[in-house]
Structures are given as structure tokens and as C-alpha cells.
Specification:
- By secondary structure, the protein is an alpha+beta fold.
- About 40% of the residues lie in helices and about 25% in strands.
- The protein has 3 domains: about 80 residues, Winged helix-like DNA-binding domain superfamily/Winged helix DNA-binding domain (Arc Repressor Mutant, subunit A), CATH 1.10.10.10; about 80 residues, 3-Layer(aba) Sandwich (D-Maltodextrin-Binding Protein, domain 2); about 90 residues, 3-Layer(aba) Sandwich (D-Maltodextrin-Binding Protein, domain 2).
Length: about 300
Amino acid sequence: MDRLTSMRIFTRVVELGSYSAVASEQGISAQMVGKHMLGLEQWLGGKLFHKTTRQQTLTELGQLFLARCQRVLEELALTESLTQNLLAEPAGRLRIAAPLSFGHHRLVPLLPAFLERYPKLDLDLQLTPRWVDLVEEGFDAAIRTLRPQDEALIARPLLTQHYHLCAAPDYLARHGVPRQPADLAHHQCLHGNWGEHERWQFVGEDGQNEEVRVASRLRINHWPALLMAALAGAGITLQPAEQVQGHIAAGRLLPLLGHYQPPAKTLYFIYPAARRQVLKITLLGDFLAESLQAKPEPE
């Protein structure tokens, strides 16, 4: 007899508690169920069940074999699922969330190529600065810079994002040029409106970390808007490199604290671990990792 079939029937006998229940479920006779059990016992060289007139319980051998059967059958089901995914054409809707500035500058330009590659997929993108609850809010995945501690979520690194500290020449002419991180405490340091103060971190040439508490009279929870404010001379901004490289090259912004480097952040593609085998999520993660690594940051 096919041993995989016998292993499946054995696990169902344990779960349902009787030969007759398994026979009814599988569309075979109780005698056939018994033959599968007998074949396994002859193969293993021992009894799988203790039997009485009222009940049957697993022997020590039966308990060990059940654990192995469950593991083998789970791996087989996973292999079958992966094979089906490879042969299937992805379809349906993908709902994802991403940060405002990254979504605007890096993510959105990539999406037409993804939709062209998979014509049966639809994509809903929500650009938001907040951390969304994937399960409660019905998102398939999210892109964020914080790696979740929740084991129910998988975080796949997409890219490392670097930052530049800079300001407009007009602002620096009026307020002076900071020479070290501590000087930023005396400047208008543009940041989001999630609090009156925030802390900016820097790494010096000696590898030492420095942190400074900064404040600003103007607070905006949108990176592109903060950039516009910096270009207008409202203060110093700490921006993703791809947003300010062109302005620095054109002289509209001047880089600051050249001997100090703001820490880079890793962007993660985050999705529920329970959905790791969903093909459309896997394909989007693969596409973004491939595209973001291959495409340089825009200037």
C-alpha cells in the first residue's frame, strides 16, 4: 500500500477516534482502514494502538510516529502549495500601505511595470505616515522603516535609505551654519507635528553616536512639505537622500555637518506570517526588492 496514504489515514484515525469514522470520511471500508494500520505496524515492527473494548490509545511508538507523520504531511502540503503557486497566474486585489515620501518618490513610479507584468492583479496603495494594523484594517502588506517585533509578521528588507541634513543658503545667511550636532538645539529644525520636540541622531567620524533634541516653530507630518519649507528658508531639514540630492547639486540647499552622518534606515516589506504562501504578496515583495536594488535613487 502507498505509505503516504496510510500515514494520512493513520493521522485521521487518531483525530477522529475510530476506523468507521475515517472509513466514512474517506469513502472506503473499515476493513480497508484496518489494512492500512496493519501495513504500517508491519513496516514499523510494532503496535501503534493499545486497544480495549471501549477505546484505543496510542502506544509510545504510535505517539512518536504520529509526530513524524504530521511533520511529513505538513511539508508535503507546503510543497504542493508552492508548486501550485508556481503554475498559477496571480489574480485579485493587493492592498498595501507605504510612507508618504517614499511612496511618492520611489514606489509609485515602479507600480505600472508590476501591473503590466501581472495583468489580472489590481493594486490599492495607501500613503500614510502611521503604522497600520495589517489584519484589522485589511492590508496585505506594508512598507515601513521599523522592523516589527511581532512574530506574527514577516519583515523582508527592501533597501537601506540614507539621509542628508541641509538648509537653504538664505536660512544659513540669517541664522549661521551649525558646526556640530549640539548647535542644532539653537536652530529651527523642521520636523513632523507628532510632538513639540524630537531627537536627531548622528554618527561622528570616531564612530561615536550623538543625539540632540531639536525643535521648530513649524511642524508638518509630510516629508515633501517639510522640504518645500526648507527650500523657502524656514529651517534645517533632515531628509531622505533621494529627495534632496537634486536640490543640493543645484545649490538650492547646502549640506551640513559633513563630519557627521545621520544613521541610515532599512525599509521593510511587512506582511502577516500566516499569509507567507499567498502568491501575489510574494510576487510583490520579489518585484520591489529586485526593482529597488536595481534602480538608483533619483536625483
